[in-house]
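Dear support,

I submitted the protein below through the web form. The confirmation email said the job was done, but the results page showed an empty box. After a refresh the structure appeared. I'm attaching both so you can tell me whether what I see now is the final result or a partial one.
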Amino acid sequence: MTRMTSDVDYLGDAIGYGFMLIVSNITWAVSILVAMVFTTSWKAALVSVLPLILFGYIVFLLWKKVDVLYEDNRDNVAKLSNEVLEMVDGVRVMRAYGKKELEQERFQKRTTEVLKKANNLVVYNGAIGQVAKFLIGLSTAVGLAFSGYLINQGQMTIGQLITFQIYLGMLSGAVWGLSDIVLVYQQGNVSFRKIEELLTSEDSLEKEGQREIDRIDRIEFEDYVFQYPTGEATTLKKIDFYLNRGETLGIVGKTGSGKTTLIRQLLRQYPISETGAIRINGQLIQDYSIQNLEGLIGYVPQEHILFSKTVGHNIRFGNRQADEYAMNEAIESADFTKDIARMSEGLETLIGEKGVSISGGQKQRVSIARALIREPELLILDDSLSAVDAKTESAIIENIRQVRQDKTNVIVTHRLSAVAQADKVLVIEDGKIIEVGSPQELLELKGWYYEQYMTQQMEVEENETI
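What the results page shows now:
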């Protein structure tokens, strides 16, 4: 975030304000020196400039140290900004666990540490300013003393001395301005490196193919193995299955088994592994344009990202060109019609930041409607029914089956009732497929799926009894 805010501002200052300082002060200083040489005494001018050359040398010596301090300070501020965002997002959790005061103390301690390091930078910046002030004074004193010597030798007049003194005062202002340039460009230089690092970083996802398709007929995973770029362990292990057009695939398994990681391969959110293969319509997935595939997929993630606008705006975000009929069909398929009717402003109801004014189940249904309005070739629901009751879940699944009979669907869930009508179900455990088949076939195996099914059935019966 800092790269997009503070760094851009600092770089802008260096390019704009800094460039103006350089041009104006250097032009001014050179003009004054030329005037001093031709209207007073070149010898006095040379002697006066010597301390200023020393100033340039001292700045050169301090440059690397100040550069390190600027970068360290910038990184500390960036980390602090991220912590602030986390605390704002997690304020409800902190209050719920009674950790508000503890987090405040920790944040205060962290702020104090950042302030101390920032003060080190201020000391060095102040040192540069004081050195500039001292050497400007030294330049004036040496220049006037040497001018007195030249007058005594008959090489300079009193009038030239007065003129020389005026020029020295004007030159001092130019040099003082140049000391500001050092600070502006030092900060801009650090920001430039950070922005350049971001812009030149290699994105392996950009290495995509150029093929395009307008429909998805078959998806195949062939002994596919995946490991996160920064991970040490293999996350997906020899995943092998296929899914034909018009089928619904259920993916179940315990938390952390690799279900979401599996579907993220279809979304191309990570570089495709070289071990094994993923094919769409018989062609390697990496041969297709990512943008083309994104246009064919409707994805509802676990965490529902909503905009602080109206309900209608959030749903229509999936397809800006959708007409009223498509809008109503998506809302009905997401079993959201009655909820909208109860809202005072209907589709024009503002949902607040991150959907704060609507319930968890309503957030999920807004997200589902947003995906359905795209009429995607492939619909992926990633644990997107966890906040709705069993009746609503059943209605949504049935609606999706009806309106998407010739399209492909993938449902990732913990509740087996969501995949009871699926054509095929994968059971994932520790990144491996341990069971595969129709729901009925998996029940007959009496493995993980059967045990989970019986457990959930008992919970349902207990709730009905209560």
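Response: this is the final, complete result; the empty box was a page-load delay. The chain has a mean pLDDT of 84.
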